[in-house]
């Protein structure tokens, strides 16, 4: 990768894995990066959900919003930090890309790096964390199913990493990995981001 190709980093995982907290933490370390927020949460907080749009309609809307957020971010900079990626929709609605006539391989290749975070393993801790997020409705068993499906979707990526453990460890390791991969794969952006820090 080189030139004007965006370096898109995806931070993904099942419900209550700490995605948004890790995403914010990494973003704070890279002031020159462009944050791309989670599209599904935006839609849900806007009053659009599976209940109102149906599963297919909602996942189509998520895909379109995510794509628009990524493309809009590209106009602001070349280091994009994404809270979830476009492939996430396939974990919720496996025939999504067939409906959209989109290639999963092409979508996967958009991203330079994928970090998946482990779902909270303790069901009681999960329920406590779950109550603090109005956009979540999945129980613990469903969260683990989604985690496995996301792993299946993303593990083919050459820089895919799965991060287990407590949230603070995930934050530190995610930041270390992003710094390491950015220097190795896009030293041009590493310099730009460092200059703006």
Give a description of the structure.
With 197 residues, the chain is an alpha/beta fold. The chain has a single domain (7-196), classed as Rossmann fold (3-Layer(aba) Sandwich), CATH 3.40.50. It is 56% helix and 12% strand. It contains ten helices and five strands, in the order E-H-E-H-H-E-H-H-H-E-H-H-E-H-H. Strands 2-3-1-4-5 form a five-stranded parallel β-sheet, sandwiched between helices. Helix 1 crosses helix 9. 39% of the residues are buried. The model has no long low-confidence stretch (mean pLDDT 90).
> How many individual β-strands?
5
CATH homolog superfamily: P-loop containing nucleotide triphosphate hydrolases
**CATH topology category name:** Rossmann fold
Mean pLDDT across the residues is: 90
